[in-house]
Amino acid sequence: MVASLPKPSLAPDLAPSQRRTGAFALIDSLERHGVKHIFGYPGGAILPIYDELYRAEARGELRHILVRHEQGAAHAADGYARATGKVGVCFGTSGPGATNLVTGIATAHLDSIPMVVITGQVGRAFIGSDAFQEIDIFGITLPIVKHSYVVREAKDMARIVAEAFHIASTGRPGPVLIDIPKDVGLEECDYVPVEPGAVDIPGYRPTVKGNPRQINAALQLLEQAHQPLLYVGGGAIAANAHAQIQELAERFELPVTTTLMGIGAFDENHPLSVGMLGMHGTAYANFAVSECDLLIAVGARFDDRVTGKLDEFASRAKVIHIDIDPAEVGKNRAPEVPIVGDVRQVLEQLLQRARELDYPTRPHASQAWLNRIERWRVDYPLSAPKYESSISPQEVIVELNRQAPNAVYTTDVGQHQMWAAQFLNNGPRRWISSAGLGTMGYGLPAAMGAKMAVPEQEVICVSGDASFQMNLQELGTLVQYGINVKTVILNNGWQGMVRQWQETFYEERYSASNMQEGMPDVELLCSAYGMKGLVVERPEDLSGAVAAMLAHNGPVVLDVRVKRDENCYPMVAPGKSNAQMLGLPEPQRRELNALIQCGDCGAQSPMTHRFCPECGAKL
Known about the structure:
By secondary structure, this protein is α/β, with parallel strands linked by helices. The protein has 4 domains: 190 residues, 3-Layer(aba) Sandwich (Rossmann fold), CATH 3.40.50.970; 168 residues, TPP-binding domain (Rossmann fold, 3-Layer(aba) Sandwich); 177 residues, Rossmann fold, CATH 3.40.50; 31 residues, no CATH class. 35% of the residues lie in helices and 17% in strands. The protein has a 6-stranded parallel beta sheet with strand order 3-2-4-5-7-6, with helices on both faces. Strands 11-10-9-12-13-14 form a 6-stranded parallel beta sheet, sandwiched between helices. The termini are far apart.
């Protein structure tokens, strides 16, 4: 049937102006903006658009991925955007189709992810009449989008799409909603294409260059600091500023800590990396931020899960805050040097000015500070316990990192998310996780979107048994399209983080957090969907099970039965400073001038070295 479809001329061959429907204008505009994949679910109000999409798919120009729930479409578009930096696109029909997208829109909004969300709407004559499946999705989503449109006339479609992509992907990225009444999709107009970037939006002029005076002021603070710390957030990922962050850190010998959103912005194997800070950050990152005298915040927003007790966060430090969103600068912490601009461009300005002024590097001034951080690293390391009769959840993450070090990882939300953040060493755009909204059910559909974006890369979702059940219906989507995503469930039979809080702060009253009863048999579930499911319960079987999962050509769910009562530490309790962490081990108190032997070449190195000076192996 597809082969017998008429073959309309390709979009680039359109005459300058000709009669076309609003639906054609939409699909053609999406193609012109480089869209290759759309995640969605059809319904009555959006059928004119799906009818035009059918023709585009027949031409081989677009591919639609039919999800099993609209929330999965939004999360998949989000994962697609995070894996590539491009705008993700999802479709939903009016009424419940649109409202099912809301959680995914809010997730993207809180994490500043570029998305264009397209919803069907009842016909223009029926708007406001409480027609079947009418809902004011424009009004519902106003607080959680960067901008939104209701298309009133088909002739406006091309301009609106071009504006939506421009707004979603420039400045501080975010989701943009386009609501399209059904009759607008059917209406014909004199269609004039609008090419990407060919829009001028009065009043929308994001600041991208930093103020030169502020650049100079920042360099002066860098020169004066004795205990500086680079604090990197998701804005650095959005700006693709990885190279500039590394150059800045190495030039000034700055230890680097990241937020949950900033993971991957700096090489976590680098000697200057101190890992994630905050509620479940490393002890050495939290001690460093508590003791630093200069905090350089790059694309970070001083979130409460990072700062702990705000008035004690970096209380000894002067602050340089670099962010493209002026609303974030000074919102939670007043900086001595605020710099509004694109993170990558501001850092390039900073580095260029340092070269012009021949600013010295800081190896001597900073060595005592680096030694102090190394002492904390030695005394309070992250550890993955091993048990004789049960598997520790940390052990699972370590094994994944060993066997699939270059995979793209998505996560759901909870203890497993924090363990993954602690023990995986991620590169740029290889860490995809719901941070601001903390959305359970995010990981599987986000992995689906990421795999469609980067099909040549291994994509692994790390989930928990409670989170997995939020959107497990998307296993059907994986099977239908042969999307080779691996899902690893850290199954402790609980809503793990809820249980940990109930144990710690609610005197072990485990109210509505036990998930053991009713957990599906993963092998039977996967068999029902026509895919592979594995279960592992013994520590000695873990490595082989992970290897079998990775070797299988197709989607797999690996259900790992982990120790039920394992808690995620370190942990900063609500209302406490970052230096007041629960669950720290007793200090190991090894001398920093002691020697450590390289396991590869046998050379002796000081304890302060993280890499062997002879062969480069990690110590």
